């Protein structure tokens, strides 16, 4: 196991950073929704894309929805022995794209559909797909 960690240390570090960022994002979403906006915990956020509270909470929900796929594909690629260079580049890119998606969504940068937020999201999905394919190929 130490050899695996050493081989993929940068990719693992990036996944650790993403995990910490998601904890920060969850904390911010909870404070914005429950404390600042006064919306009750445990229910769907009120509002729409026009409201910053909605965007903060939805960006966190989107991160949660995408986290498991990235984590699973990344770890499977590492365990299967896929190219450490490619795995590292793709994982780091995925983490950067997730952070950009968060910023684009909360700050409402660009159009709601087809803009930089959509591009960051789709590129992240393609990275998940690439990592999963790399894992499958490495296992064959």
How many E-type strands? 0
Query: What proportion of the residues is helical, as a percent range?
Result: over 70%
Return the string of H and E elements. HHHHH
- The DSSP helix count reads 5
Oligomer: single chain
Question: What's the overall average pLDDT, rounded?
Answer: 95
Question: How would the global form be characterised?
Answer: elongated
- Portion of residues in beta strands equals under 5%
Structural class computed from helices and strand pairing: mainly alpha
Uncertain segments of ≥5 residues (pLDDT<50)? none
**Largest β sheet strand count, sense and barrel closure:** none
Q: In whole angstroms, how far apart are the ends?
A: 21 Å
Cα gyration radius (Å):
17 Å
Mind sketching the topology for me?
Blueprint: H1 2-7, H2 9-36, H3 52-80, H4 84-107, H5 116-139
Helix pairs in contact: 2-3, 2-4, 3-4, 3-5, 4-5
Verbal overview:
The protein is mostly helical. It has five helices and no strands. The longest helix is centred in the middle third of the chain and has 29 residues, at 52-80. The radius of gyration is 17 Å and the shape is elongated. The mean pLDDT is 95.
Structure characteristics:
140 residues, mainly alpha, 0% strand, elongated
What is the compact description of this entry?
The protein has 140 residues and is mainly α. The protein is built from five helices and no strands.
